[in-house]
Amino acid sequence: MNEKSNRLPSLNALRAFEVTSRHLSFKSAARELGVTQSAVAQLVRGLERELGVKLFLRLPKQLALTDTGRVYGSDIRRAFQLIGDATLAIKPQQFSLTISTTPTFAAKWLLPRLASFTAAHPEFELRILASESLASFQTDGVDIAVRQGQPPFGPGLKAELLFEQHVVAVCNPALRHAAADAHASENLEGLTLLRDTHNLWPQFIETGLHLTPSSDVKGLRFNHTSLAIDAAIAGQGIALASDFLVEADIAAGRLVRAFSASVRGRHDFHVVVPREPRHPGPTDIVRDWLLAQRTGN
Questions:
Q1: Does 275 lie in the same domain as 132?
Q2: Which of 20, 119, 149, 233 is least buried, going by the fewest C-beta atoms within 10 A?
Q3: Residue 221: count of CB within 10 angstroms of its CB
Q4: Cα–Cα dist 119/122, whole Å
Q5: Are residues 160 and 283 in the same domain?
Q6: Is residue 177 part of a domain?
Q7: Over the stretch 253-297, which tens digit does the pLDDT of each residue have?
Q8: What is the pTM of this model?
Q9: 111 and 171, same domain (yes or no)
């Protein structure tokens, strides 16, 4: 047998034939392959010429496989399946996990660190579900959650402490002296307090600054702490946030501590996973990575 007679047909032609043999329609095959109907028909005709056999009967309103086409189509379909299986076997396995957290935690802590994780674990596809609403491990397909509060968080879940909540007041460096003067004079009415849905300012003023909260102090309200932090960076006032959420902004000089006081909050941050996760190995890897970040490892 010479080299020419041993040559395999074009893979494009074989694929066009295999898809057409399933649909018995050039139009439907073209839609699946993302090419034109005429291109599919031309590939199939070229394959028939090369093989020297008829694979389809061209009926008035449809196609029909010849006996030869039926047998050949079945064999070609198995061949493509073998190619697909072999390719899948050598490709790195992909894992898709969903992490549920608040928008502020995602924006100010998690997202800046994700690049290091994805570089170390390219086989992972992480989906970040950022919402103030409590996501469900079952109905929302959540694999890992970062939740605030005190465990237990529910039956069938296990929680590990990520960060204790220590609330600090931060502002643009340009407002530092105004904040210090207001504290020294025990009059905060000249300051603008940036509030979020947690509304921790009364507790901070009373417990941290040892002053009496007043309704006369000016303020702006935001529905996310991250927005209050961004407003503080822009010099619009003083925001309250958990200390670890503003570490990077303080280190970069975008923020400073407005007061030296720190108030211990009741809503610590925990990494929460199901006791029986859907993907045990990958879930452990992501959970361990999250916990390692608290010490900077």
A1: yes
A2: 119
A3: 12
A4: 6
A5: yes
A6: yes
A7: 999 999 999 999 989 999 999 999 988 999 999 999 999 988 654
A8: 0.68
A9: no
